[in-house]
C-alpha cells in the first residue's frame, strides 16, 4: 500500500487495559536542501535603510545599513551591526553614533554612505544638510528620524560587531515613506 494511502488510515494498534490506542500515520516530506550562501538567502528579507554616522570633524565617516533597530524601549537602546574592517567601526569605537532613518527619496545619500562612487570619510556628507546632537555624531536634517547614541556595549562575532547604543536624543522628521532595500534594489514602504 502506498505511503500516501497509509497516511489517511487510523487503526487500533493494541488494547491497553480495555482502551484502544489509535495511531495516525503521517507522510513526512523531506526538505530539499540546496546549499546557497547566506547572503543570497537574506536578499529575500526587505530591510529599512539607515545611515549610521560617527566621528567628528575630518574623522567623521558613516555607513549605509539595513541592520539598525531598537533593542529596548525601557531603557532606550539601539543595536546596529557593523563590519569590523570598516572605517565606521573605528569611529564608533570612540564611543558614539547616530542612526538616521532614510526617506524613500534619499537613495543618493544611501549610495554615498554605501561607498558607491568611491567616496570615503567626510566626503560622504557632502550634498546634504547635517547638524550635531548630544554626542557630536551628525544627524541628517530631513531624515524620517534620527537616534543619537553613546556606545553601551559591543559584541564581536566573526566579521562584525553588534553595537548597543544608549539613546541620548531622538529627532523625528516629517512622516513619509521609508527607503527599503530588497533583492539588491531600493524601494519604499
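Sequence proposed for the structure above (189 residues):
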Amino acid at each position: 500500500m502506498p505511503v500516501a494511502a497509509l497516511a489517511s488510515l487510523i487503526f487500533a494498534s493494541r488494547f491497553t487495559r480495555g482502551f484502544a490506542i489509535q495511531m495516525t500515520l503521517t507522510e513526512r516530506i523531506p526538505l530539499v536542501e540546496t546549499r546557497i550562501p547566506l547572503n543570497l538567502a537574506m536578499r529575500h528579507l526587505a530591510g529599512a535603510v539607515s545611515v549610521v554616522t560617527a566621528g567628528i570633524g575630518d574623522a567623521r565617516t558613516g555607513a549605509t545599513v539595513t541592520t539598525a533597530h531598537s533593542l529596548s524601549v525601557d531603557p532606550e537602546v539601539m543595536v546596529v551591526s557593523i563590519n569590523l574592517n570598516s572605517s565606521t567601526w573605528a569611529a564608533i569605537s570612540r564611543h558614539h553614533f547616530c542612526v538616521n532613518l532614510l526617506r524613500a527619496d534619499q537613495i543618493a545619500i544611501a549610495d554615498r554612505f554605501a561607498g558607491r562612487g568611491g567616496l570615503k570619510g567626510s566626503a560622504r556628507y557632502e550634498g546634504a544638510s547635517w547638524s550635531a546632537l548630544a554626542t557630536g555624531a551628525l544627524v541628517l536634517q530631513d531624515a524620517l528620524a534620527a537616534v543619537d547614541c553613546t556606545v553601551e556595549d559591543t559584541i564581536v562575532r566573526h566579521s562584525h560587531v553588534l553595537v548597543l547604543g544608549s539613546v541620548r536624543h531622538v529627532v523625528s522628521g516629517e512622516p513619509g515613506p521609508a527607503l527599503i532595500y530588497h533583492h539588491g534594489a531600493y524601494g519604499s514602504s
